[in-house]
Amino acid sequence: MTNDMILAAIDGCLDADKMVAACQEVVRTPSLSFEEGAVAAIYARHLRELGFDTVETDANGNVIAVLRGAGNGPSLMVNGHIDHVPTGEMKDPFSGALVDARRWGEEGTAIYGRGTCDMKCNVMASAYAIAAIKKAGVRLRGDVVFVADVGEEVDSPLGVPSVIARGVRTDFGLNTESSRGRVHIGHRGKIDVEITVHGRTSHASEPGNGVNAVFEAAPFLDELQRYAAAMKDDAVLGPATVTLISMKSSPDNGTAVVPDRCIIRVDRRYVRGETAESCERELRDILERIASGNAGFTYDLAVIVHYPLMWVDPESPVVSAALRAREAMTGRPDTVASWRFGVNGTFMCAAGIPTVGLGPGNEKWAHTPDEHILVADLVEACGIWSRMIVDLCGVASAD
Prior knowledge:
Elements: H1 3-12, H2 16-27, H3 37-49, E1 54-57, E2 63-67, E3 76-81, E4 98-100, E5 109-112, H4 116-135, E6 138-140, E7 144-149, H5 160-165, E8 172-175, E9 184-187, E10 189-198, H6 213-228, E11 233-234, E12 238-239, E13 241-250, E14 261-270, H7 276-292, E15 299-307, E16 310-311, H8 317-330, E17 337-339, H9 345-350, E18 355-357, E19 372-374, H10 375-393, E20 395-398
Parallel strand pairs: 3-7, 3-8, 8-18, 9-17
Antiparallel strand pairs: 1-2, 2-7, 4-5, 5-19, 6-20, 9-16, 10-14, 10-15, 11-12, 13-14
Helix pairs in contact: 1-4, 2-4, 4-10, 6-7, 8-10
């Protein structure tokens, strides 16, 4: 069989109706972080029905399945997460309804609900895309390892980092987070920093007897705004940023007490040429400058979360395969791009697995009351993924 014949056979073996129904099923099953058990069982059932060679759910709740190749070609890990963020005031968040996308200025039919584009539909569709290769009678040279992981929305180490830590490794990686069908080669890194500025309590009727920690923190807020205006820019990853994401005083229980602590949470996104350590140092420098002009200014600083920068060499074979597959499926050549937020591909890259991002859906709808994904985008993504897998892993035989 020629390569075109192989790809045509794979396309013909994708059951789009069943794939869409499976996506609706998982959207209708709530799966907040660390509450993914029910939806994980659904993925495992579909993976077995689709004919994966092995399917397991590990101790942390991650679903891992393998389509074995002949053992003489590059292997690929296909990853996505199965938890979702809270629904907020989203209407019918678990309906999984098929709706007309014109309400969002788009064409076609969409699946609506929390976790559609972020990213339970992407994960399910990728399983169907992989299975279509086997159904078409194609045996790959390299293995495809499918990982649907937990706790991504809360930056948990129990998801794909734990899977990698216990020895699940491949030559290359594919993260299927929504990217509007474009090829993403990375994203900025992030640290969340908690800064506590100290004061001294007093009765609120006698504020002069205390030191109000909120007022003490005010100069830092001014300096943070000046710092934010001088961030670096990256040609691919975009601008570095810093912003305050929460601020609270303590004690804060409604009593007449001048607060002796002001607790500030800062989100700092960094780009190439910066590190988590350099960003922490810059924030400490700001605080030290304030302290040098105010002998009574005291603070604590702690890095609460570090989400590493993701970067894969644009010349990597996995990037080239993704770009070729996208152009072959869509007829549209493209250049590489990046996410504005973080994805699990960063942990795969950090483990020495060059990983590219490519997924259906527009990421701007993630975490919003209008979250949805176009059915046509899911089908197109399956075609791109299957072409990428065949290209990268190679064909051992085709019946």
